[in-house]
Fold:
Amino acid sequence: MLNLVGFIFWFDFTYILIMLPFLLLAGWAAMRVKSTFAKYSQVPSKSGLTGKEAAEIILRASGIYDVTIRPVPGLLSDHYNPMNKTLNLSPEVLNGRSIAAIGVAAHEAGHAIQHARAYAPLQIRAALVPIVGFGSSLAFPMFLFGILFHIKSLILIGVIFYSLAVVFHLVTLPVEYDASWRAIKILESSGILTEDEIPPVKKVLSAAGFTYVAATLVAIAELLYWVLRSGLLGGEE
Structure:
């Protein structure tokens, strides 16, 4: 029966109609950030600093001394972990001396500054992580069994669980854009980058930020699909 359900869902025209534009947008956003980063990774910074060195300067200038900078494998896998106060940089960013590397490192340092300053959206996102992780794993089974056995209470629980994931995406947007804003502001005032190096960094961070916008739109569209597919709005029983 599960194979039959999968077959029906795979060829569900409603799913294609709702999701395809946003999935294409997300794919385009991912390609854009990679190409933009690759382009400006070829442009060395005039300061000659590595991403790690730039992040260290930014953290110290912000009065932050308890954050550890360490390498993490994978292209554009850079992230700040508030749980253990680590700023994790990919090899291209950690050791790179390009304006792209410095821009990404500064962005991640921006997250560390958010944490130190108790930036509310970051705190909310951190609180949502375990809830969303648990809820996301249960959302699809709830949807599936609720639809198969016509149990609307299960479908509703699935909607609530998946709605939390959508909320997580929505909260992530101000977190990411604020980190980029902090990064640009510090890079401009610190002299790490020159005035003519700032616009390319803005392009890199803008491209990265749009991937979060696209992911949010995909999550909202998928939630809409499940609500329509479930019949909670009165379309199906």
Remarks:
- Residues 2-230 form one domain.
